[in-house]
Amino acid sequence: MLTAPAGLMIYVATRPVDFRKGADGLALLAKETLGHDPMKGVAVVFRAKRADRVKIVVWDGSGLVLYWKRLDSNGFKWPPIVAGVMRMNAAQLSALLAGMDWTRMHAPRIPQPKALA
């Protein structure tokens, strides 16, 4: 299971990409087309034409990491295919990678502490 470190910005490329691309090709695509550079501390999630595969490119501090996953039984729940990119939080990414409906995952709101009088 992949866990995202706290504060990691996660972006999803909403259009399918050529899954023959490796880590370097996807990082370049993210930087030039989407405007988000994985080398600068963001994770970029890519989808294949079929909804059963996902690739994630992220810099871990010492090198570029490519995470690849294929679901056997069914496909991932993807956002609608539109031009551009969307944000996702760590809980939603975990749900996506588990094959669950990530749109039902929301980060819990933490109430602000009340000031002591």
TrEMBL record:
InterPro entries: Transposase_IS66_Orf2. It comes from the Bacteria. Pfam families: TnpB_IS66. PANTHER family: BLR8292 PROTEIN, PTHR36455. This is IS66 family insertion sequence element accessory protein TnpB. It comes from Bradyrhizobium campsiandrae. The gene is tnpB.
